[in-house]
Design a protein that fits this description.
The chain is built from 28 helices and ten strands. By secondary structure, the chain is of the alpha/beta class. The protein binds adenosine-5'-triphosphate.
C-alpha cells in the first residue's frame, strides 16, 4: 500500500484529539514501569498502559496515542531494537540493502526533475507562441531529455523494485523463521499468559508487515525507508522554490499558495475534532462483536457442524446473532454515527483551488516564464502533499516501532518450564523405568479460582503401573499433564528419579516419555505422517511405521484404506481444505489420491496409539502415559492393547523396563495396574492395589461394583 493512499484521518485524529493526552495523565500505569524502561519488553508493556481504557486495551495492534510518553517509549524501543533490525537487513544482502537506501534518496528527487523538464518544454513552446524566438533543435533536445528522464526513471524504478523485493524477501524469511523458531520453543504455561499472547499477536503483526500488506497501521522497516524518499522529495522541492524568480508580493503569494493547498487537510482534521470523530482504534467491544460475528459466520459455513445445526434448529439463532453483531460492527445503529453539520458538506477546497489562480495571475504580470509558474505551482502542491505523507508515515512508523518492539521482546521470552542454566540437571535414565514421587502437588488453571489438583501425593516405583481412576473432572488428565511436564504445578514437589522435575529440561524429559492424550491431535496428512510424528527420525522408515501400526492393532484398518498407509486422512471432518489443482474426479470414477479419507473415532484412536508406539519401545523411553487410550475401542481390542503395552514395558526377560500410567474409566483395565489412585475433586482419596481398595469398601469399591 502506498503511503499516499492512507487516509489522513489516521494520522490527524491522534494529533488533534486532546482527550487522549488527558486520559493518559488521568490513568496511571497499573504496573510499575520505570521511567526509562530497561528492556524492550518493559517499554512495550508501558506503551500498552498508555492506551485509553476501553480503547484497544485488550486488542493487540491498537494504535498508541501520540504523546510525549509514547514518543519517548518509541525512541527507547527503536534504540533497543536497532542492533537486531540492522542485523536483519545486513545479514543477507548488505550491498543491496545499502543500494536500496541510496535509491530511496534518489527517487525522491525525480519529481523535481520531472517538473523542471516540463517547465523547460513549456517555456520553449511559450517562446514559440509569443515571440517566435525559439529553435527546433533546442525543443527537440528538451523533448529528448524528457524521454531519457522517463526511460531512466522507469529503469531505476524496476531495478529498485527488484532489489527491494530481494532484500525484503530475505528479511521476511528471517523474521518468519525467527517467529516460527520462537513459537515452537514456547511451552503451554508461557502461551497461556494473556500478556504473552498479546505480545505474540503484535509480534505477528510486525511479521505480517513484511508481506507488504500495509493497512491497519502496519509499517515494516522497509516502508520506513520511504521516509528518506519523502524527505529528499521535500528538500528538492523547497530548493526549486527558492531558485524561482518571484513577482510582486512574493511572501504573501507564497503563504497564500501554501495555506490554500494545505487547507483541505486542516479542514478535514478540524471537522474530525469539532464533530467528534471516534479514534480509529478498535475498542474491546468492537473486537468482541467481530469475534461473535466471525464465530457465527464460521458456524453457518461449516459443514462439520451442519448435523447439529440442523438437529438443534440453530439456523435462525445463528442468523440473528450474526446480524446483531454485524450491524453493531458496521455502525448501522444511528446513535453511533458521528454528527454531521452543513459545513462538512461544503467543499471550501474547491473554492480555494479557484482562488489559487489569482496569485498566479499576479505573478504572471512580472514573470515572463510560464514554465516557472507551472514549476512553482507543482512544487507548492508537492510540498504540501509530501509533508502530509511524511506526517502519516512518521505516525505509522511510530506505531510500527511498537510492533517491532513486540517482535524483539517476543524473541526474548523464555519458556516458563525451562530451568535456569545454573539449576539445570541432565535427565539420567534409570534402568527399570521412571521413579515418580509427588508431594502435596496443587495446581489451578490460569484464570480459575478452584484448584484442579489439591495436595496430591503418591510414589510410583520405576517399572510400576499406575491407574488413575475417578469421576469426570476429578483431575486425572491434569495430573497426567503435570507428570509429562506439559504444565507446571503451583505448589508442592515432584521428583523424577529423585530429582526435582523443575530442574530438568522439558525436552529431555519428553524424549524419555510417550503418551496418548485424551484429546489427541489429528494431523492433516497421510496415515504414515500421522503415525510417524511419534518419532520423526523414523517418519520415512516403512518398517518402523508398519510395526507401530501393527502394535496398535490397526493393520487391517490401514490396509483397507485406498492408498494404504499413504492415504490422506480427513482431520477436518467435512471442512477439508480445497483440493489441489488438477482433474476433478468423475462421478463413479476412482477416488483421487488427494481426497482425504475419514476414520471412525475408534480408528483415529488406534492411529494415536500407533503414534505413541512409534517411540514406546525405544530404550530411552521410560514413561508411557495413556489418557483414555481405549475409550472408543471394543472390549476385545482393549485387552489386546493392554497386553501390548505390558509387553512393551518389559524386557524380553520379562523384567519391567518402563513405568506406565493409565488414565481410565474402565475399571477392568485399572485392576491390571500395580497401583490404583482414586481421584475425587482434585485429590487422591484412595491409593493402593485393586484388592486393597476393594477391601477398603470406599469410593473405588463402589465405582467398581457399579461397573460390573
Ligand atoms: N484448560 C483448562 N482450563 C481451566 N480449567 C480446566 C482446564 N482443563 C481442565 N480444567 C478443569 O480442571 C478440572 C480437572 O479436569 P481434568 O481434565 O483433569 O479432569 P478428568 O478427571 O481428566 O476428567 P475426565 O474424566 O472427564 O476426563 C475440571 O474441573 C476441569 O473443568
Amino acid at each position: 500500500m502506498s503511503v499516499s493512499s492512507i487516509p489522513l484521518q489516521f494520522f490527524l485524529s491522534d494529533f488533534w484529539i486532546p482527550t487522549i493526552d488527558g486520559l493518559e495523565h488521568s490513568e496511571p500505569c497499573k504496573h510499575d514501569s520505570p521511567a526509562e524502561p530497561d528492556s524492550i519488553y518493559d517499554a512495550w508493556l508501558a506503551s500498552r498502559h498508555t492506551l485509553p481504557e476501553g480503547v484497544g486495551r485488550g486488542v493487540p495492534g491498537a494504535s498508541r496515542p501520540i504523546t510525549v510518553t509514547n514518543l519517548k517509549l518509541a525512541h527507547r524501543m527503536a534504540k533497543l531494537c536497532a542492533p537486531e533490525m540492522l542485523k536483519l537487513f545486513w545479514s543477507h544482502h548488505p550491498l543491496r540493502a545499502l543500494l536500496m537506501v541510496s535509491i530511496s534518496f534518489v527517487r525522491g528527487i525525480f519529481p523535481v526533475f520531472k517538473g523542471y523538464s516540463h517547465a523547460m518544454i513549456i517555456n520553449e513552446v511559450q517562446s514559440l507562441i509569443s515571440s517566435g524566438h525559439f529553435t527546433w533543435p533546442h525543443l527537440v533536445r528538451l523533448l529528448g531529455t524528457e524521454f531519457l528522464r522517463v526511460v531512466l526513471e522507469k529503469y531505476l524504478d524496476s531495478f529498485a523494485t527488484n532489489n527491494e523485493h530481494l532484500v525484503q524477501s530475505s528479511a521476511r524469511f528471517s523474521v518468519e523463521y525467527q517467529q516460527m523458531e520462537q513459537r515452537v520453543r514456547l511451552d503451554v504455561p508461557t502461551l497461556s499468559d494473556p500478556i504473552v499472547r498479546d505480545l505474540l499477536s503484535e509480534s505477528d503483526l510486525f511479521v505480517s508487515s513484511f508481506q507488504g500488506v500495509g493497512g491497519f497501521g502496519l509499517l515494516s522497516p522497509f516502508d520506513f525507508i520511504r521516509i528518506f524518499t519523502l524527505l529528499s522529495e521535500l528538500v528538492s522541492h523547497i530548493y526549486i522554490l527558492s531558485t524561482l524568480q518571484y513577482g510582486p508580493l512574493p511572501l504573501i503569494t507564497l503563504a497564500f499558495s501554501l495555506l490554500s493547498t494545505a487547507y483541505p487537510f486542516f479542514q478535514s482534521s478540524f471537522m474530525l475534532y469539532r464533530y467528534g470523530f471516534e479514534v480509529p482504534a478498535f475498542t474491546d467491544n468492537d473486537m468482541r462483536l467481530a469475534e461473535k460475528q466471525e464465530q457465527m459466520r464460521q458456524l453457518s459455513l461449516s459443514e462439520s457442524h451442519r448435523p447439529e445445526v440442523m438437529l438443534f434448529g440453530l439456523g435462525p439463532w445463528i442468523l440473528d446473532t450474526w446480524a446483531a453483531a454485524r450491524e453493531a460492527g458496521l455502525g448501522i445503529n444511528p446513535s453511533r454515527r458521528p454528527q454531521e453539520s452543513i459545513f462538512s458538506h461544503m467543499n471550501v477546497a474547491e473554492v480555494l483551488t479557484a482562488l489559487q489562480n489569482i496569485p498566479f495571475v499576479l505573478m504572471l504580470q512580472s514573470s515572463t516564464s510560464l514554465g516557472s509558474l507551472s514549476l512553482y505551482r507543482s512544487s507548492i502542491q508537492s510540498i504540501v502533499y509530501t509533508v502530509s505523507n511524511l506526517f502519516i508515515t512518521v505516525q505509522m512508523a511510530i506505531q510500527g516501532i511498537f510492533l517491532m518492539g513486540a517482535f524483539c521482546a517476543s524473541m526474548q521470552i523464555e519458556p516458563l518450564l525451562q530451568p535456569k542454566r545454573e539449576e539445570k540437571v541432565k535427565y539420567e535414565s534409570k534402568t527399570g523405568g521412571m521413579r515418580i514421587e509427588a508431594r502435596n502437588l496443587s495446581f489451578t488453571y490460569p484464570g480459575c479460582t478452584e484448584p484442579a489438583l489439591k495436595n496430591v501425593s503418591f510414589t510410583l516405583e520405576a517399572g510400576e503401573t499406575l491407574a488413575l481412576v475417578g469421576y469426570n473432572g476429578s483431575g486425572k488428565s491434569t495430573l497426567g499433564k503435570l507428570l509429562l511436564r506439559i504444565v507446571d504445578f503451583n505448589s508442592g514437589e515432584l521428583y523424577i528419579n529423585d530429582v526435582d522435575i523443575r530442574r530438568h529440561d522439558p525436552a529431555e524429559l519428553h524424549a524419555a516419555t510417550t503418551a496418548v492424550f485424551q484429546g489427541f491431535s489429528k494431523y492433516n496428512g497421510t496415515v504414515s505422517e500421522n503415525v510417524g510424528v511419534g518419532y520423526v527420525a523414523d517418519i520415512a522408515c516403512p518398517e518402523a511405521l508398519r510395526r507401530a501400526v501393527r502394535l496398535a492393532e490397526s493393520e487391517r484398518i490401514v490396509d483397507g484404506l485406498p492408498q494404504g498407509i499413504d492415504t490422506r486422512l480427513d482431520a477436518y471432518g467435512f471442512d477439508a481444505p480445497p483440493p489441489p489443482p488438477g482433474p476433478m474426479p468423475t462421478c463413479g470414477g476412482a477416488r483421487p489420491a488427494w481426497m482425504p479419507h475419514g476414520l471412525s473415532g475408534g480408528e483415529w484412536q488406534r492411529i494415536a496409539l500407533a503414534r505413541a508406539f512409534m517411540r514406546a519401545g525405544r530404550p530411552e523411553v521410560h514413561l508411557l502415559l495413556f489418557d483414555e487410550p481405549t475409550s472408543a475401542l471394543d472390549a476385545h481390542a482393549q485387552n489386546k492393547i493392554c497386553d501390548t503395552i505390558d509387553a512393551i514395558a518389559r524386557a524380553p526377560s520379562g523384567r519391567r523396563t518402563k513405568t506406565v500410567v493409565f488414565i481410565t474409566h474402565r475399571l477392568a483395565t485399572a485392576r491390571r495396574a500395580d497401583k490404583i489412585a482414586m481421584m475425587e475433586h482434585g485429590c487422591i482419596t484412595e491409593f493402593g492395589t485393586h484388592d486393597e481398595l476393594l477391601a477398603r469398601g470406599g469410593a473405588y469399591a463402589a465405582l467398581y461394583r457399579a461397573s460390573l
